Amino acid sequence: MTYCLAINVENGLVFCSDSRTNAGVDQVSTYSKMYRFGIEGERQFVVLSAGNLGTTQAVISRLKRDIKDGAEQSLKTVESMSDAAEYLGEVNRAQQEKHSDNTSANFEASFIIGGQIQGEKPRVMMVYPAGNHITTSKDTRYLQIGESKYGKPILDRILTAKTDLDTSALCALVSMDSTMRSNLTVGPPIELLRYEKDSFTGQHNRFDEDDEYLRELKKAWDARLVEAFVQLPPIDWQPQSPDESHEA
Amino acid sequence: MTYCLAINVENGLVFCSDSRTNAGVDQVSTYSKMYRFGIEGERQFVVLSAGNLGTTQAVISRLKRDIKDGAEQSLKTVESMSDAAEYLGEVNRAQQEKHSDNTSANFEASFIIGGQIQGEKPRVMMVYPAGNHITTSKDTRYLQIGESKYGKPILDRILTAKTDLDTSALCALVSMDSTMRSNLTVGPPIELLRYEKDSFTGQHNRFDEDDEYLRELKKAWDARLVEAFVQLPPIDWQPQSPDESHEA
């Protein structure tokens, strides 16, 4: 399994990904799921991947080769983030179809692509296995691929357009931590990338399994939550009304 | 869908359930999923239900009838919580099998049964469609049925054996709120029951859709979380190393 997410707030973008891949529970490996492409000062892309590892690796190779070969369409030539997502969708579909004929195996893969092209606002898109894509909105500031449920509530409670980049990054790490606790097939190293609007460069951190900061963050967050409960309005309990109980 | 959970801490038990049932998205109704049985001062049971509504209603009817008819085995006669779960499992299986022959429809139902019998500790069990059951442990203080993923992280971060009953109850409400935000087929009224060890009675609250307290709690919790982020250790960002970026 996988958990990747991207956040789009007014000041920029945040990307976060785990690095665990597995086929069953006893074939577990570590692969980065975060790829960066760009021309410093001109265009920056971050791609996050989920799904069949053969497909995601083939897709990323193709993206690199198209750039290297000076292909008509590549991340170097696309004119908008929306074109970039369209292009990634086509590559994704082509790679899946290559092997789908003679087997019932699942070659599906999903991607998140985000970044900024000079003259455009920063944007984030999610590319489905079918090749189509969606983007964030005023009300929905994030996109997720993979095991998305455990880490969703904290994003819903915290993220708005005005959330600053550092809080967004912390929120992504807490969301990732919630997911790792509950799904063993999501695991470290964790990669985190912070992209400030109009910077056309990024800041990237990688947290290994025994990372001191990640441990400290987890501990601090757990402690803050316990404290938060103390400040909540107390429940005004009603005695159990006897007529609602079924006398045994 | 459904979300029900039960918490087992040293001082007692907490039960929480939603009340939405649906077949598709345009056939939505409200049914309580929390049932109480007991003899004040002697034995108390709380049953939470998830799954096929025909099955859960038939199971609860049968539990009531067995008590009323003075059957050899009923919640009035079982000698332990474990026997109670075994009995509920048999009733559940029998009701599912009644209709399963001529259709591919899914009649499965799951239950949580918790409570206390004089002379025993309070206990909580989860009864599977197959009739078997599991209970909580020293490390796992809660059980969930239905849409369990969204509400799980907060339970994992907060609950220990020593958590007091009021915090446990607030934690259950926050877990329920997280789930309701993310899954439309989990909805109010929310029922909450607090059982103090050796009390052999309970306190029960029901929160409707427009409940003032629930709104206040949600607002307070969101505010506390935003504050909590401010106190977290800041990330020590590394500049993006150019050799790791793929030049477009």
TrEMBL record, chains A, B:
GO MF term (any one): peptidase activity
BP GO annotations: proteolysis involved in protein catabolic process
Keyword Hydrolase: yes
Organism: Marinimicrobium koreense
Spans through the membrane: none
Keywords attached to this entry: Hydrolase, Protease, Proteasome
InterPro entries: Ntn_hydrolases_N (IPR029055), Proteasome_sua/b (IPR001353), UCP009120_prtse (IPR016545)
Stored Pfam families: Proteasome
Name assigned to this protein: Putative proteasome-type protease
Gene Ontology annotations for the cellular component aspect, listed alphabetically: proteasome core complex
Hydrolase in keyword set: yes
